[in-house]
Amino acid sequence: MTNETIKDDIAGARSLSNIIITVVLLIAGAGFFLAGISSYLHVNLLKVTDTSTITFIPQGIALLFYGTGAIGIATYLILTMVWDVGSGYNEFSKLDELVRIVRLGFPGKNRKVFLSYEFKNVKNLKLLLKQGLNPRCNILLVLKDRREIPLFPPQILLNPSETEKKAINLSNFLNVPLESLVI
Questions:
Q1: 36 with 96, same domain?
Q2: Please, what is the Cα angle at 139 between 138 and 145, to 5 degrees?
Q3: H or E segment to which residue 104 belongs
Q4: pTM above 0.90, yes or no
Q5: Are 90 and 178 members of one domain?
Q6: pLDDT tens string 108-134
Q7: Distance between CA atoms of residues 131 and 150, nearest Å
Q8: 106 lies in a domain?
C-alpha cells in the first residue's frame, strides 16, 4: 500500500480448510467405494473391517454411490486448488482513478476475470455484517447503477473489527461514504 495505490492480494482455493476437506473426502470416499466393491465381489478389500458380508443390494450400491460422489467432489477440489481458482487482487489507484478487481477462474478462454471501474462510478462502500449461525463479513463496492460487487471472498474477512477498519480505510481512500448493513 502506498499513498497512491492500495493493492490487496486475494488467496484462491489453496487454503488449509480445502486441503483438509479434500483429504477427508478422499479417504472416506475410497473407504466407501472399496466397501461397495467388496460387497459385490464378496472379497474383503478393506483391511480395517470385514465388508464382504454386506449385501450388494441395497447397501453395497449405496456405498458405491456415496464413495463415487465423495471421490468426485475431492477431485473437483483438487483441480480448483491446482488451478488456484478465485485468486487475484483488488487494486485501488488514485493515479488512474480506477478500481481494478482481478480474479482467476477455471481454465478456458475467459480464465482471467478483469473488472475495472472509475472512481466517479463508485457510489459508496457497504460493510456487510451477518450474524447468527453462519456469520459473514464483507465489503461491497456499490456502483451508481446499483451493482454491488464483493471485494473479498467471504471466508477471508471473518473478524468484524478488521473488516470495519479495512472498510473505513477504503472509504477514506476512495472518498465515498461507508454504509453499514447488519443482518
A1: no
A2: 130
A3: strand 98-104
A4: no
A5: yes
A6: 999 999 999 999 999 999 998 888 777
A7: 18
A8: yes
99 and 50 together in one domain: no
Q: What cell was used for 77?
A: 477440489
pLDDT at 141 over 80: yes
Final residue of a domain: which of 43, 67, 83? Answer: 83
- For residue 9 the three cell numbers come to 492480494
Range of the domain at 156: 86-182
Could you tell me if residue 105 is left (phi over 0), alpha (psi between -120 and 50 degrees) or otherwise beta? beta
Domain count, the chain: 2
What 8-state DSSP symbol labels residue 94? T
Amino acid at 43: V
Look up cell 456487510; give the residue: 128
Give the number of residues written for the chain: 183
Give 33-78 as a DSSP string. Answer: HHHHHHHHHTS---SSS--TTS-IIIIIHHHHHHHHHHHHHHHHHH
CB 91 within 8 A of CB 117: no
Q: What is the DSSP letter of 161?
A: H
